[in-house]
Write a structure and sequence with these properties.
- The protein is of the alpha+beta class.
- It has six helices and eleven strands.
- The protein has a single domain, classed as Nucleoside Triphosphate Pyrophosphohydrolase (Alpha-Beta Complex), CATH 3.90.79.10.
- 24% of the residues lie in helices and 26% in strands.
- The strands form two sheets. Strands 1, 2, 3, 4, 7, 8, 9, 10 and 11 form a nine-stranded mixed sheet that branches. The protein has a two-stranded antiparallel ribbon with strand order 5-6.
- The protein is globular and about 50 Å long.
- The two termini are 18 Å apart.
- The mean pLDDT is 86.
Length: 250
């Protein structure tokens, strides 16, 4: 089995871009903030050189990574631990997530990626369900109103990255991927979180303004997609005593 981390050489990353506003906010803090749990879903469709990836541009109003293109995602909410859902994560993804968190919390991380994708791009990944109340949560209620449950089938974890301590906001971010098949890209829309939402090839993404973490995960994603099957361990980036480490987890 090929390993998308070890077999393809080191992951090359660009310079971390920090705005003056972000730098000033970090100086206001006495110590590095504790990373918050977050989740990102990379959706793909098509095949070969025509493989397309869903991304959007963060508003310039954001005080963290403004104006850059990112994958849909965000913080894991309490509601994600209790929301009803459809489909199951693979045994591989469950094992990797549960090496860090209990089963309910692990599933919540994956569910958050599906929820955030709906909130930020208007794309609802759901499976038909009998109508019943889910939670008093706008996004999960939106699934219910359409007769759907958020669907975890086909969602695979492929990376993890912890924001370095010199940022004023930090996240323990888990990266998932789901391939929708060799189909026409589904309809999407902008939101208050992401603008210029679109489907882009790897070549088109090279022309977009992105951050170091996104560039890094795009390289990991390319290797993951070329592997014979998903690796038993995932790429893991974190800073240790001020130095970036490219590790494997668990």
């Amino acid at each position: 089995m090929s390993d998308p981390i070890k077999d393809s050489g080191p992951v090359l990353v660009g310079k971390m871009k920090i705005t003056d506003g972000e730098r000033a906010k970090r100086k206001e803090l006495d110590r590095a903030p504790r990373p918050r749990l977050a989740s990102t879903l990379v959706l793909t469709c098509g095949a070969g050189k025509n493989l397309k990836i869903l991304m959007g541009q963060r508003s310039k109003r954001h005080d963290f990574m403004p104006s850059v293109y990112v994958f849909p995602g965000g913080r894991v909410d309490r509601a994600d631990s209790y929301a009803k859902y459809a489909g199951d994560l693979s045994a591989r993804t469950e094992r990797i997530l549960e090496a860090a968190y209990n089963p309910r919390r692990a599933r919540a991380i994956a569910l958050a990626s599906v929820r955030e994708t709906w909130e930020e791009t208007g794309l609802m990944l759901g499976a038909k369900s009998v109508s019943h109340r889910n939670l008093t949560h706008a996004s999960y209620d939106a699934f219910r109103e359409k007769g759907l449950l958020p669907d975890l089938s086909g969602v695979e974890v492929f990376g993890r990255a912890v924001t370095p301590p010199h940022r004023h906001k930090r996240f323990d971010a888990w990266f998932f991927v789901k391939h929708l098949g060799n189909i026409k890209p589904p309809q999407i829309s902008d939101s208050s979180e992401l603008l210029n939402v679109g489907w882009f090839t790897f070549h088109e993404i090279e022309k977009l303004e992105t951050q170091r973490a996104t560039d890094m995960m795009l390289q990991v994603l390319e290797r993951y997609l070329k592997a014979d099957r998903p690796p038993e361990r995932i790429f893991y980036s974190r800073a240790i005593r001020g130095e970036f480490k490219m590790l494997q987890f668990p």
